[in-house]
Amino acid sequence: MMVRESNIRGLAAGKAAIGAVAVVVMLLSPGCGTLTAVLSPDLVAALGVGESVSTIPGDAPEILVTSRNDTGNTVQMIISYRDGEGEVRSLVNTIQAGGKSATALPCPVTEITLGDISDLDAAGARVILGAGDPIADPFVNVEPFGVLLRDRLNYSCGDSLTFSVQLSGATRSGYQTFFYVQRSDAAQP
Asked: Could you read off the pLDDT of 143-184 as tens digits, one per residue?
């Protein structure tokens, strides 16, 4: 069966109109606090405006991976991970001073690291000197993170992972990488 674009637009417009009417009815009805108190629960569910929503990150089938720059310079970070099919994938983020970038990765993510999964001695972050142009400006490689993090050992689906570059007097480069995990469920290991 072929569905015309005009039919899809008409359905979407109808759904939006019904949703708007439902909100007006709810606001004008005394003592009613939810759409299901005014409208049929089946209609509310069909509209996609029900009360049941996923809480992030706990119920999400993803992990949230954040690259955070806690320096006064632009930082370029490479995060590599192995997806559920065994494929190695990479995220490359260029982050301004004090900024961050986040990406939700679908589970399972079996392994992840700052740098290269196949070479833990490779630098995964560099601090860009000058104006912050990662191609034209000079840079300093931050010492390798060097740790391969594993699913269900270091993190679980639904967790938030943060890789951070910070100033450090303990390294030659003057910068150091850190890893933080925020568990979606405090009962997880």
From this structure: 999 999 999 999 999 999 999 999 999 999 999 999 999 998
| Bridge partners of residue 68, in order along the sequence | 100, 164
Domain 62-182 has CATH 2.60.40: yes
Q: φ, ψ for residue 15 (rounded to 5)?
A: -65, -40
| DSSP, residue by residue, 35-87 | HHHHS-HHHHHHHT--S--PPTTTT-SEEEEEEEEESSSEEEEEEEEEETTS-
| Token pair recorded at residue 114 | 């700052």
Provide the residue ranges of all domains of the chain, joining segments of one domain with +: 5-47, 62-182
The residue type found at 126 is R
The answer to whether the peptide bond before residue 108 is cis (omega within 30 degrees of 0) is yes
Q: Find where tokens 């809480």 sit.
A: 55
CA proximity to 56, closest of 189, 182, 187: 182
Beta carbons within 10 angstroms of residue 83's beta carbon: 16
Cβ 158 vs Cβ 59: under 8 Å? yes
Mean pLDDT, residues 128-141 taken together: 92
* Residues 160, 163, 167, 168, CA torsion sign: positive
